[in-house]
Write a structure and sequence with these properties.
- The chain is an alpha+beta fold.
- The protein has one domain.
- Helix content is 25%, strand content 49%.
- The model has no long low-confidence stretch (mean pLDDT 94).
């Protein structure tokens, strides 16, 4: 497993303010980490709408 640093970029659909949601997750691949980050965003920030491509980095292998 590797540790990934993920930044999701988007807006709050109610206030139209820009948002950045940072996550650090352990996962087997970057796709799995990105999927988990998006699930966390949908769960805890239901008004968040992704507008830009997310930033994904490997922090530790």
């Amino acid at each position: 497993m590797a540790k990934f640093s993920i930044m999701l970029f988007g807006i709050d659909s109610y206030t139209k303010n820009k948002m950045q949601l940072p996550y650090k997750l352990d996962a087997k691949s970057s796709d799995a980490a990105l999927r988990e980050a998006r699930m966390c965003a949908m769960t805890f920030y239901p008004r968040f709408s992704e507008t830009e491509k997310p930033d994904v980095e490997v922090v530790k292998r």
